[in-house]
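Working notes for the structural subgroup meeting. M.R. asked for a predicted model of this chain before we commit to crystallization trials. I am recording the input and output together here so anyone reviewing the notebook later can reproduce the run.

Input as submitted:
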Amino acid sequence: MPAARESLLDAAYTALARRPWAGVRMTDVASVAGVSRQTLYNEFGSKDGLARALLRRETDTYLRGVERALAQARDPVDRLAAVSAWTIGAARDNVLVRAVLTGCWSERLPAPSRAAVSSSPVPAQRRADAGVPAPGELLAQVRDRAMAALTERGRPSETENLARACESAVRVALSYVVAPAGREEDPARLVRRVIAGAAGR
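Returned structure, recorded in token form:
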């Protein structure tokens, strides 16, 4: 991704932290990124295009974190617990990730769009214009990535139990995103118990 595009997305994300999306001005985003307004429009086409690109970037960043958690060479239960911990932390720290994971969009956030027809000459924008997955679709992507990572090492032979454990890991994590735990509660310990039960261990 070109540096100017990334700088513009960073500027848009920072602006969103300070004010509702409706109050984010393209001129201000371009100024903070140190580029012209025309460069901003060349990259994203419109404010809606900028919103789609920002949502796509944050979703992709979340999915890369899932893959990093799965790449840890540990017991499958620990690896799924790492995915859950990443999900809880990413949603806690990033309002856009939380919205994509839960489907709960406040008035402050840009609204998600589904599959816009893109005429952008910028490949990254054409990808962004395809929209972000719905929560159920995102959960399925995480489950499928987990299944692929855990079965490529040839460890579990019971695919159905593994699929249930992978989905349970994300669903338990999402429950902590929607209703955060009190200080005394340790989500990682509960996640391990639930995953172990779902995996038949």
